[in-house]
Amino acid sequence: MVSLDRIIKDRLDTLAVPLAVRLPTGQRLGPEAAEVEIEFHDPAALARLAAGNLGALGGEIVNGKVTIHGGMRPLMRVVAALVPDDGRAERPRPWQRVWWGLASILRHSRQRDAAQIRFHYDVSDDFYRIWLDPRQVYSCAYFRDPAMDLPQAQEAKLDLICRKLDLRPGERFVDIGAGWGALLLHAARHYGVDATGITLSQNQFDHVTRLIAAEGLGDRVRIHLCDYRDLQPAVPFDKLASVGMFEHVGRAHMAIYAQRLSELLRPGGLALNHGITVTGLDDAMIGGGLGDFIERYIFPGGELIHVSHAIRQFSQAGLEMVDTENLRPHYARTLWCWSDNLEARLPEALAVLEQTMQPERAAEVLRAFRLYLAGCALSFEESWTSLYQILLTRPGGPPAAPDLPGADSSYPFRRDYIYRAEPPDAGAWGRGGAGPV
């Protein structure tokens, strides 16, 4: 019988990227020049590497049974070389599809969704401040100019969304999954809209509430702590954005989500869905067990689908897709910015986490986020996952382009409006608005 040591040594000898492994006995395998060394403290963890189950190996790292020596960027080069089948899971069998459907239904009640969101976002606002930009925008940035830094690229992303939605003064705008309020406040400040946001995170709700009060915007900006299914506006909104939200909805509830977006939007209005998708048409999770790692340690309840399936659901809900843009490389760069920011301040990040949880738990959370940010950067680099902005309209309203027959919506069917030189000056519009939802 071949020993685990021998299996691992054979894998190291054939690996395209140099990697060293230190066994629990202290023996070191692999080249001296390797930038990354994986140190095993538990013999049982060796089986994870031998079997190529990187998700389970990541769990052992989080639990402290395995230690990584080396930076996240060289580690991800090793991971890319180890992941089987270019990171894509094999085609699911019929019984797996049935199980996915049942599991999705069970995982996405209102109570579970709220708990899952809080599991991730309510770790500590101060922790997120360490590695996000000053606005705490926790979604893909838009590096319109390659020379942009992260804060500039995040502002460019906020403005890109507002431009695509063609926001106008006084319009009723809703942000589904408003995060720490960056888009909500940007749209109100620079485009003069009457803005409503919703979130399931208590930390985010409290943060945005304070920002609204501090800026004196309470007469035309508001935030609600509620599920998207429970939002009941007096009248439909003119414009809608959902950023980094539909990844949490679940396959079984995607039709409900699409229908709800349609109901929240007035005829002729515009909606923009900004979200992560998988590249495999079968909606399979990322291979090598990496999807399982994210599900367990980072985003419980997160489920990704292919962009074509998302567009199909929107279409069945009566929404017309008028523009779709893939920002995949932008998200890879965004995630590396976050990862580099965190790596540069690890002692501070650990100290911040220890203020809200036990030291052992804080160390686990930090190890999980280090792997998560770098691993997601790799996933977008390798095209295992993508990021799409899907612009939708609910047909039936007054046309923005009267010269085009059938243009019965706010979309002008000409993309030049997105790239106008400057946004309007919201400062000239005063405050007032349509009032609360």
Automatic annotation (TrEMBL):
Active site annotation, chain numbering: C376
Superkingdom in the source lineage: Bacteria
Family: Belongs to the CFA/CMAS family.
InterPro entries, A to Z: CFA/CMAS (IPR050723), CMAS (IPR003333), SAM-dependent_MTases_sf (IPR029063)
PANTHER family, per the entry: CYCLOPROPANE-FATTY-ACYL-PHOSPHOLIPID SYNTHASE
UniProtKB keywords: Lipid metabolism, Methyltransferase, S-adenosyl-L-methionine, Transferase
Gene Ontology molecular function: any one: methyltransferase activity
Protein name, UniProt field: Methyltransferase domain-containing protein
Annotated organism of origin: Paracoccus limosus
Gene3D superfamilies associated with the record: Vaccinia Virus protein VP39 (3.40.50.150)
GO biological process: lipid biosynthetic process; methylation
